[in-house]
Each structure stands twice: as structure tokens, then as C-alpha cells.
């Protein structure tokens, strides 16, 4: 496609300009996420079709979606292999900003820093996880400052405020290199993996009451108001209610991530039903990864418009960049909250109960996928 470069070009460019001087990471608390440790007040929600925003810095923004490798950090060589993954991201950011000019946003997939291995247990994954802020985010922040671009990426994260937990977080850096969002994954899909195994990361839903007590309801579905548009990040799939709620709060661009696969209909339907833009960053094929599963359906990342159609998309599973532009100024001028006849459905929603209730990991942290499967099977409601 016109908005795509090939894998050979992507892998052939060096690291670019030197990083800026080290800065005080602790200054970069996220006002729109669970990084401050304090509730942000009442739910920020309007009921007149409008939504909160900040002024745009330009009428049209340029985005690069990075379809890159997923290489797991080596447990015996964590620092070096994790840094190599971040350096690869920095090289990709150099390429993205060198091809047809600087980008306003470079969006990565779910695990570009740590990679992923299904055999990791809790201790393994916590050992390879990053902290935010930290050395890895500062390497990326230097690139954000160098090019004046926003950067989004997912990662396993350790948080000292949750000392026994493993978090899956999507981070947004602004064009000054500041962390403006550290968004927890909302929930894990249960009953999906073979062999009765389940994910053991802690999501918002797993500790919902404590999360809300700490951070407030507004942080449950955080919409990040930026000069390039209102952003909502998610690594969740097949739950359109999350994106409907984010759209009601004013999300204009859904920054979605995946590892190994995503559902095309889901991505397109979310954009069409809510009349918003979406990006989907999936990992590429990773032949250098000895743990790579050939049937994990990599590639085909892209961008979807409010009509539910891809306007840029990779046509390969190779490592590549997908480029596109969003006329955010004209879009915002006519955009409103999605139209939902809530009075028709709320009585049903209020009585519905999911098979797995919230707060199931409040008092117990599974140690691996098998333990998580056994524990959660005993907690199902139907």
C-alpha cells in the first residue's frame, strides 16, 4: 500500500540522533490514569452529546503504526535483551519520522519491550517487566522529544504500589517525552486459552473495588485529552461495551494493540458503531524468535475510519510501518457522542451478571497460567 514501507528498509536503518540528557522520570505522573495514586474526582461525563477536549495543535495529524517483532526477553540476560528490544523500537521511530516527514504519533503493539512467552510464570514475568518511569521509557522519551511526536506502547509492568502484581499497561508519551497515560488493561478474556489455562496478569476488573477506591471511576475507562485528539488505549478485544463507553466519554481515536492476532470485524465495528478512528498495532512475524508460534496470525496492522473501513493496512505479516493521516480538526467539528437509546437497554444491563464477577484476584494472585485456570474455574457464576 502507499502508506507502507517494506521490511528490508525497516531493518536497515540505524539508531539516528543521540538521546537527550537524562531527566527526572518521577516528574512524569499521568493525570489521566492510575499513576498518581489519588482519585481524580467524579466521573467526567457529559449528557448533551458534547465531550471534553483540549485545543488541537493542527487540523490534520500524521500517524505511523509499527508492525514490529515480538522477541521475549531472556531470563538469563534480562537487562541486555530488554534494552535491545527498546533500541529496536528507537530505530523504528527514526524510520517513521524520516519517511515523509515527522509523525505526530507512533503506535506500537502490546509487547515490543518484553516480548511474550506463554510458559513464563508470575516470577518470570515480573522479573522481565519494566517500571514506569524507568530506563526503557526514558529511551523512548528521548525519541519523543527529538521528533516532537507522541509514542504509545504496551508492556508488562511492575508497580511498587501493587508489589505482588503483574500489570499489562499501555503507555502514552507526549511530544515532550512526558508519560501522560499508564492505562491498565481493563479485563482479561477468560475461557479462551486451551488446556483450561488463564492469564495471571491483574486487570482493573480483577481488583475493581480497590482500583476505584485508589484512583476513582474516571480512571476505569480513561480518555486522554491531547492536542492531537482524545485517545483511548486498549489491548482488549471482543467487548464493544468498553469502546462504546470510551466513545461516550469523548474518545476520538482508539489506540488498540494485539499480540499474534486480532478480530478484523471487531476493529471495524467499533469504529463504525461509534463513528471514531481506530489504529490496530499487531506484531509482525518474528523468525528470529525461537519461541514464535507459526499459527499466531501476525501482521495486517492498520487504521480504520469512522465508516468502519480500513484506509491504511499492511498487506503482509513482515515487519513494516503503516502510515496514515487523520483530519482531526474537521472530524471534531462535526463529531458527537454516539447515539444510544440507553433507556431501552439499561434495565437489562443492570440485571445482567457476567460468568466471572469483579474482584476475583482481590485476595489471591495466581502464580502461573495453570494456577490461574484452576482458581478461576471455581469462581464462575454460570
Short description:
The protein is an alpha/beta fold and 382 residues long. Helices cover 26% and strands 20% of the residues.
Task: Give a written overview of the molecule.
The protein is of the alpha/beta class and 382 residues long. The chain has 10 helices and 14 strands. The strands form 2 sheets. Strands 1, 2, 3, 4, 5, 6, 7 and 14 form an 8-stranded mixed β-sheet that branches. A 6-stranded mixed β-sheet has the order 8-9-10-11-12-13, covered by helices on one side. α2 runs parallel beside α4 (135-147). The radius of gyration is 20 Å and the shape is globular. The model is unreliable at 5-38 (pLDDT under 50).
Task: Give a topology summary.
Layout: E1 4-5, H1 7-11, E2 61-67, H2 78-98, E3 105-107, H3 122-128, E4 130-131, H4 135-147, E5 150-159, E6 162-173, E7 179-184, H5 208-215, E8 224-226, E9 229-234, H6 240-248, E10 253-257, H7 264-274, E11 277-281, E12 302-304, E13 310-313, E14 320-326, H8 328-334, H9 342-351, H10 369-377
Parallel strand pairs: 2-3, 3-5, 4-5, 9-10, 10-11
Antiparallel strand pairs: 1-14, 2-14, 5-6, 6-7, 8-9, 11-12, 12-13
